[in-house]
């Protein structure tokens, strides 16, 4: 199944892109993040990120569906 990954802040910098569509088979969000982190060298651990699926903050145990838009949302700083 195909999902769209969206990256922000340091994750976007590490991935070198804001979005990518990938074929994932039937993996959960944790394994999807681990795969993306390995491919792109993300410095932030999963414990520091929020999971957003189709515009909604969800638990990491939420099952993924074909065509989901998945965001690994890093902490936000402001000034």
Structure description:
The mean pLDDT is 93. The protein has helices at residues 9-15, 29-40, and strands at residues 2-6, 19-23, 50-53, 56-58, 69-73. It is globular. It is built from two helices and five strands, in the order E-H-E-H-E-E-E. Strand 3 and strand 4 form a beta hairpin. It has a five-stranded mixed β-sheet with strand order 2-1-5-3-4, with no helix packed on it. Helices cover 24% and strands 28% of the residues. It is α+β, with helices and mostly antiparallel strands and 79 residues long.
List descriptors.
single chain, five-stranded mixed sheet, 79 residues, alpha+beta, 5 strands, 2 helices
User: What share of residues are in beta strands?
Assistant: 25-35%
Helical segment tally? 2
Number of DSSP strand runs:
5
Q: What sequence of helices (H) and strands (E) makes up the elements?
A: EHEHEEE
Low-confidence stretches: none
Distance between the termini: 40 Å
Helix content: 10-25%
Task: Please describe the biggest sheet, giving its number of strands, its sense, and whether it closes into a barrel.
Answer: 5 strands, mixed
Described by the principal axes of the CA atoms, the overall outline is: globular
Question: What is shown here, in short?
Answer:
The chain is of the alpha+beta class. Helices cover 24% and strands 28% of the residues.
What is the topological layout?
Layout: E1 2-6, H1 9-15, E2 19-23, H2 29-40, E3 50-53, E4 56-58, E5 69-73
Parallel strand pairs: 1-5
Antiparallel strand pairs: 1-2, 3-4, 3-5
């Amino acid at each position: 199944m195909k999902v769209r990954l969206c990256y922000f802040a340091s994750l976007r910098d590490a991935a070198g892109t804001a979005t990518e569509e990938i074929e994932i088979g039937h993996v959960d969000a944790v394994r999807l993040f681990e795969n993306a982190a390995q491919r792109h060298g993300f410095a932030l651990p999963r414990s520091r990120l929020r999971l957003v699926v189709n515009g909604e903050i969800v638990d990491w145990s939420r099952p993924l569906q074909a065509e989901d838009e998945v965001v690994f949302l890093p902490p936000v700083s402001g000034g």
